[in-house]
Amino acid sequence: MENSRITFIPRLFCPKEGQIPVSPDDPFISNESLREFSCLFSQDDSGLPAYVTKHPKSHDFLDLTYENLKEVAEVQIKREKAAQEAENTKEKEKEAAELEEKRIKQALDTKVSEIFNEKRWCVKKECPVLIPNKSTLNHAEHSAYLRAFVKFQIKPPTTKQERMEYEQYMQLQSQVLHEQTCFLNLTYKVANMELDGYNAVPSVINEYVSEYYKSGCKRALQYPQLYIREQEIPLHPQDPQQIFKGLQFKHIGHLLSMGAVPIMMVPNPAYPIIVKLEANVAQSYPPDSTQDINKCYQKPEVSKDPAAEFLAINHGASIVLTKSSLKTIVDNGDSFVREWAIPVVVKSYSTIDDNGKEVNHRVVFIDKPLRKKLWTPLEKKHLFRKKAVMSRYLESGKIFKIRSPKSLRFFDNLAPIPTEDDRIKESVEYDDIFNSNDDTDYDVFGGNSTSSNVASVLKKNNKGTLDLENKRKKGKSSSKAKAKKSKVNSALESTKAQKTSIKDENNSGDLLKSQAPSAVEGSDTPQTSGFLNDLLSMQGSTLKNSHHKDSSVSPEEKRKKEEDQHYPWSCTLDTRWEKLKSVQMIPPESNVNLHYQLYSLGFDGHNSHSKTSAFPSPQKEHKIIVRHNLHGFVGAKSQRVKNPGTFVLYPKLENQPFFGCEVHTQSEIIQQWAELLVRPHTTLLEVRTCRDSGEVICSKEKDLDIILKEGKQPHINFHPNQALATLNCIFSAVSGLSSGSYLLHHDRKTAAFVHLMRAATSTESSSCHPLDLHNMYNPKEDVTTTNYKTAPWLAIDTHVLTPFHYKHEKIPATFPMYNARKFDFRSKQKRKRKRETKKMLVM
């Protein structure tokens, strides 16, 4: 019989439903019952009860042989075994799933316990008032809530046990939120009581800020005196058609680095860290950098920086600005009460393109903002605390010297001064501290895309810029193409470079020399001028994040060069610095460093809504060079930071450290965003310090993703597209200016607009009412301080856990607990026994 055709009727030989089975020896049964249910009294020879023989299908089963019944039994046994195995498998899978969930929970609990048990120095501050209430939660509830809060930040709940913990966490949340609201009301009242503490400024800070302001006033005297208003630019441009959502701020590449980056020493969090308010801070970071040129270096204005001019000309950049000016432009807030003035210098240069025609290239230099006139006490403290934090975290005398181009190494005694031929023939190396190991070509910010194609940005335009895809194809060309390339290089070395003078209308004495090599006969592609073309033609270019490949170098030498610990980011660039008449030098003993990054600001997908804006060419893509510096560098061997590399320090003052850490303001988030926007592959270290004592409460490493996540909070509501729209409006307005000196001026009267002012001529100064810049920034006047009439209270951040919260397992922004756990119980018992022993000895 086939197993598939075997059918079992489980209750075939059982009594019918409703009938009571009987036994043959029951004395109270009738003959009918015996014949019906007992096989002993059956009427036929089958030996079966009557109810069986009467079944319509009984003959089908009665005719089965022993072999058939055996086969049926075997099939039934197999089926039962298979069912039992399936049930056992399900039980094993269920047990394995439970074990896996238990393992995941244990691993997550272990990680949370490690976070709570990590050794940290706990800053304890006494509250100036008596706290009237106690927490409505006991210590067990505080601990469970806090551990669940930390756990679900690491990983959302997925298992059954984690979902149960999450339900308990949500049940406690309403109670916690009510208590935190009452607690924040108390902190607001205490802040108003401590108004004098907000306005009190130590004398060392006042003296530092005074010197800092006067040195800035001296810089204002270098610019024209009188300015008249040219036009108004909105700081918050309206966008009803959502045009500015397509703006993208793309990082094209790292151009140049000069100077030395200090080695940053991250203190051990297990010991107290104090940022002292001492006078030696002014010695490390003097407010007036012109006092001692041997110990410090005053960075030149970008309008007077020959390196910035050289890079702008060779890259075709239309805007050159500093990080501080970009940060000032985007940081205005919703009230528009900040006062600032930024000098702008527009210069025109005549260069020769590939066709031999003389073209005019205009560059807008946006210098550093002039110093503020009105200061609040907290702004004074923040400035000095920033210098104090840098003095505390940066090791004096330990620097990472960047290998600048050879033509800029005049201060290095070990490197000989290169000749003009060496500068032309040899490419120069320097340390690219912004190079990344990933495969991305750009850092794109804003818009709807997260990456961009190199070929879409660097296309062949009317100025002769070659597409990067063509450059890559050249690198993979045949030996014939390589021979042509070598022939071109030899021809370039033998021929003299064509020199064209670069005209500067504002600074006629400072001349730069540029060189435009002409096309060589026998070459398939014309040779283009500019530093960008030379940069793209090198396989070691920073735009491609790879090292220069030289067939003459052996693999061992390449390996040794890559393993060089002193210069771990070595790359090769052909900068042709011999075309500069003079180069601004940086003393080797200083910690000053300058870095030049190339960006582009434009619309994604070439948005065609230019008619809706009142500004000239708002949809035009702006090529921007941003100059910035770095605060410190941490090597890969350091275990106190998560992301070794370049760092920027940002202090945050805590006005109520006895209650916890305060929330961020919109201005702080915008400043942190701007700090990292122009510094690729750099980490921001936020250091929270007490306002008066300078004790470091905690520190946190941040990147752009973390800052943008914090900026989405309802009380901040920061939108990067709005900041990019402000930059686009200002860049579009200044890019259409003629050569000359200008000023971007904003104060309370201008409100949501910034005045673009032009330097007045002798006739205009008498007829109009110009702005007197020299009178506004008089070095004889002292800085003006605006005290607070009401306390600048900030709520306590309920999401920031300090070492105090980790140690005592207490929820932030809640009242003290009734049954607070005593961690030093054993030490108290020891001290008690020692006191009793001393008493007994005295007696």
Describe the fold and architecture.
The protein is an alpha+beta fold and 843 residues long. The chain is built from 25 helices and 22 strands. It has 3 domains: 3-63, no CATH class; 118-194 and 791-842, no CATH class; 205-235 and 249-776, no CATH class. The model is unreliable at 291-297, 409-418, 422-428, 438-442, 448-552, 559-574, 579-584 and 606-618 (pLDDT under 50). The strands form 5 sheets. Strands 1, 2, 3, 4, 5, 7, 9, 13, 14, 19, 20 and 21 form a 12-stranded mixed sheet that branches. Strands 15-16-17-18 form a 4-stranded mixed sheet. The protein starts with 30 loop residues before the first helix and ends with a helix.
Write the layout of secondary structure elements.
Layout: H1 31-37, H2 50-53, H3 58-62, H4 66-117, H5 139-154, H6 160-193, H7 195-199, H8 203-220, E1 226-234, E2 247-264, H9 280-284, H10 306-315, E3 319-322, H11 323-330, E4 340-352, E5 358-366, E6 374-375, H12 377-393, E7 394-401, H13 420-425, E8 428-431, E9 443-445, H14 454-457, H15 468-475, H16 479-494, E10 499-502, E11 512-515, H17 531-537, H18 555-562, E12 570-573, E13 593-603, E14 622-628, E15 632-634, E16 645-654, H19 666-677, E17 682-690, E18 696-702, H20 704-711, H21 720-734, E19 740-746, E20 753-759, H22 762-767, E21 771-772, H23 773-776, E22 784-785, H24 803-808, H25 825-842
Parallel strand pairs: 3-5, 3-14, 6-22, 16-17
Antiparallel strand pairs: 1-20, 1-21, 2-7, 2-9, 2-13, 4-5, 4-19, 8-12, 10-11, 13-14, 15-16, 17-18, 19-20
